């Protein structure tokens, strides 16, 4: 049996056992750190975080997140969204994850028959820690033990963390953590959004707190379920809640619900506060917790009298857990770490009733009700600095989305009147014609975008454009994004551009965070065009994608001792170009020429990048000496797709392979030069 036939049969076997796997992601191991306490792995991209989620053998290591990460639109097995880090008591996350004050955006999980669901599904052990991490714009659905941050915490510690979004499940569902047990510790954390379940033990912060502690935490959430429903904790069983508050709505269909805790059993609530209500007591079954008026919820004196440790006072301790400015957290206290070193303050929460105007200026939005809204409401609006994912097709005439979008949620109450929302356009470049600017809206990040005017019947006030644009006559909150056609390019988001002098010339590398209808790029050297997507495959764009795409180009027409400045322009499918301000300057040094003369090369074939790819990928190989070289590409049946013969240079060579005319699937690429032959496989995913 020949080699290609054996490879084909092996591939069929793998596909049989893994037929539901999606290859939409590329897992990339962190390139800094070794996973020890003194040198933790640095999580810098969504590819690094995805690598962690699928490598359970790495779940006992140390990690530090060094950048904000958007994982919106990233799918997984069976299209069910993010694969939780830790998925059972046996395969739990037992290491340390330091969020470093950074944020994970766009977490989406849809696993309605799966237990232990969250960004981290299962945290276990007295040495297991998650700290200093923010999760925002999240939508998480599972069965039992469901939380936006952690599904199940067994004996671990969670501190200085927050979770903003939606959590839904059956039993033990929380806005931050589903179940906290066996001396699990949750300290200085908060949750905001909506939490729901069809069963018992549903809480705004934690679903079940069993033989564990929750200290200096709060929840501003709408919570609903069947039995034992709490604004902060659903079930507090032989456990302790101290110096916490809940401010939100609680609804339960069967029995036992409380604005603070749904059920108490041999447990304690110390110095904790919630809203006063004639219908819902502070604690549904048991004792403890202080119910106060909305006005008293906003007074620091309420909490100081209970011994809460605030910044600026010395009577209640010097740890300074809490702070208060009358605005943040609906005017209630907030955790002091939120004010210290907060680097992405893009969320806002406002409560009010009919005919109110709400200022979400720190999220770049303003809301005004223009019809009577009979319910008091709590709104939450997040702003995300990234291009959102696209499901299905865009509305007719729309070709580009801005690298900025908003997500609005109703935390408490219902919208039963029309409202207007004004969106700040600051930072969105490429707006050429305000008259043809659009605003799109979608129900959630799994639904297609709709035009607010043509599809939803709203109107746009463009009179303040390009400073802002106002949508008038809406009746629900969800996601919003600015969109444009051919005369509003809203350019491709460039996330990196670098250059270096190499043996072959100047190697330029750049990445895009997302692309919409990107035809390709044009490169300029010293303000003169040197290459274009129209004549160079390496410069052709990825079209429309919400994922990161890497590009590379070598300028060989350079001279020793000279310096060159490079810049890039992107061109969309209509031919509209956008020139980026970022430039790269490179000097061609003599040392590089000397190195080329003396370096001993080896034969080697690298894995193509990116992989999976669509529609092009870079194949790099090294030759020990110059000579006749052949590049071949085969499909899974062993049929030859491509054969290129050329004279390869000694050292590293690169070929940009374009598969725009091929269908999705596994392919093999082979380099042969003299006696050297090597074959690797690659995945085309359209």
Task: Name the poorly predicted regions.
Answer: 1-25, 341-355, 590-599
The helical percent reads under 10%
Distinct helical segment count:
6
* CATH topology (level 3) name of the largest domain: Pectate Lyase C-like
Task: Tell me the β content.
Answer: over 45%
Query: Sheet with the most strands?
Result: 21 strands, parallel
CATH class designation of the largest domain: Mainly Beta
Given helix and strand content, the structural type is: mainly beta
Structural shape? globular
Radius of gyration, in angstroms, nearest whole number? 28 Å
Quickly count the domains: 4
Question: How much is the average pLDDT?
Answer: 82
Judging by the overall fold, what is the CATH architecture of the largest domain? Answer: 3 Solenoid
Number of strands: 54
Quote the distance from N terminus to C terminus: 32 Å
Domain GLUG: 169-196, 200-219
Domain Secretion system C-terminal sorting: 609-683
Pfam family, one: Glug
Protein name: GLUG domain protein
Give your account of this protein's structure.
- Helices cover 7% and strands 48% of the residues.
- It has 686 residues and is mainly beta.
- It has four domains: 36-292, 3 Solenoid (Pectate Lyase C-like), CATH 2.160.20; 352-484, Sandwich (Chondroitinase Ac, Chain A, domain 3), CATH 2.60.220; 493-592, Immunoglobulins (Immunoglobulin-like, Sandwich), CATH 2.60.40; 600-684, Immunoglobulin-like (Sandwich), CATH 2.60.40.
- The strands form eight sheets. It has a 21-stranded parallel sheet that branches. Strands 41, 42, 43, 44, 45, 46 and 47 form a seven-stranded antiparallel sheet that branches. A six-stranded parallel sheet has the order 6-9-13-17-20-24, with no helix packed on it.
- A hairpin with a 4-residue loop joins strand 31 (357-360) and strand 32.
- The longest helix is centred in the first third of the chain and has 15 residues, at 3-17.
- It comes from Chloroherpeton thalassium (strain ATCC 35110 / GB-78).
């Amino acid at each position: 049996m020949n080699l290609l036939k054996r490879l084909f049969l092996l591939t069929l076997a793998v596909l049989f056992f893994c037929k539901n796997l999606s290859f939409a992601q590329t897992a990339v191991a962190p390139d800094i750190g070794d996973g020890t306490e003194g040198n933790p792995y640095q999580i810098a991209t969504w590819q690094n975080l995805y690598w962690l989620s699928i490598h359970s053998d790495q779940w006992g290591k140390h990690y530090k997140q060094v950048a904000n990460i958007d994982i919106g639109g990233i799918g997984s097995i069976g299209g069910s969204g993010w694969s939780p880090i830790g998925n059972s008591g046996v395969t739990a996350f037992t290491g340390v994850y330091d969020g470093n004050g950074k944020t994970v955006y766009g977490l989406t999980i849809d696993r309605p028959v799966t237990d232990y669901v969250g960004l981290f599904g299962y945290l276990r052990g007295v040495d297991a820690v998650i700290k200093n991490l923010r999760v925002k714009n999240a939508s998480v659905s599972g069965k039992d033990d469901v939380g936006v941050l952690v599904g199940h915490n067994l004996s671990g510690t969670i501190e200085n963390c927050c979770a903003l979004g939606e959590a839904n499940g059956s039993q033990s569902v929380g806005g931050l953590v589903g179940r906290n047990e066996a001396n699990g510790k949750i300290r200085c954390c908060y949750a905001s959004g909506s939490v729901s379940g069809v069963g018992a033990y549903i809480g705004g912060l934690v679903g079940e707190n069993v033989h564990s502690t929750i200290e200096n935490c709060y929840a501003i959430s709408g919570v609903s379920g069947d039995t034992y429903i709490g604004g902060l904790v659903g079930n507090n069983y032989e456990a302790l809640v101290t110096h916490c508050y809940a401010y939100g709505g609680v609804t339960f269909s069967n029995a036992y619900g409380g604005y603070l805790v749904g059920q108490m059993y041999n447990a304690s609530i110390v110095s904790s506060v919630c809203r006063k209500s004639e219908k819902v007591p502070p604690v549904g079954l048991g004792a403890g917790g202080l119910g106060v008026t909305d006005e008293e919820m906003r007074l620091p004196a309420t909490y100081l009298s209970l011994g809460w440790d605030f910044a600026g006072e010395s009577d209640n301790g010097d740890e300074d857990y809490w702070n208060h400015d009358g605005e943040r957290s609906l005017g209630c206290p907030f955790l002091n770490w939120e004010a210290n070193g907060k680097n992405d303050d893009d969320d806002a929460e406002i409560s009010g009733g009919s005919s109110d105007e709400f200022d979400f200026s720190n999220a770049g939005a303003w809301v005004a009700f223009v019809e009577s809204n009979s319910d008091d409401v709590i709104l939450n609006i997040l702003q995300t600095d990234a291009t959102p994912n696209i499901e299905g097709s865009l509305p007719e005439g729309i070709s580009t989305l801005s690298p900025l979008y908003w997500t609005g949620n109703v935390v408490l109450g219902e919208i039963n009147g029309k409202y207007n929302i004004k969106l700040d356009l600051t930072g969105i470049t490429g707006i050429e014609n305000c008259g043809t600017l659009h605003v799109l809206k979608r129900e959630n990040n799994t639904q297609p975008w709709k035009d607010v005017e043509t599809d939803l019947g709203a109107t746009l006030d463009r009179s303040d454009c390009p400073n802002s644009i106002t949508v008038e006559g809406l009746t629900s909150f969800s996601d919003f994004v600015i969109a444009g056609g051919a005369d509003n390019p809203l350019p491709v988001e460039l996330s990196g551009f670098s250059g270096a002098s190499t043996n072959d010339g100047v190697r330029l590398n750049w990445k895009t965070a997302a692309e919409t209808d990107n035809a390709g790029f044009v490169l300029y050297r010293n303000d003169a065009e040197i290459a274009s997507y129209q004549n160079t495959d390496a410069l052709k764009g990825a079209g429309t994608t919400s994922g990161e795409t890497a590009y590379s180009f070598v300028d060989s027409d350079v001279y020793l001792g000279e310096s060159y400045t490079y810049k890039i322009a992107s061109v969309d499918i209509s031919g509209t170009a956008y020139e980026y301000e970022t430039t790269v300057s490179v000097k061609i040094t003599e040392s590089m020429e000397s190195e080329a003369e003396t370096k001993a090369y080896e034969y080697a074939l690298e894995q193509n990048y990116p992989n999976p790819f669509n529609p092009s990928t870079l194949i790099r190989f090294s030759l020990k000496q110059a000579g006749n070289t052949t590049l071949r590409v085969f499909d899974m049946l062993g049929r030859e797709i491509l054969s290129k013969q050329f004279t390869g240079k000694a050292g590293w060579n690169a070929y940009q392979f374009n598969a725009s005319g091929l269908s999705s699937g596994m392919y093999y690429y082979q380099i042969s030069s003299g006696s050297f032959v090597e074959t690797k496989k690659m995945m085309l995913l359209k």
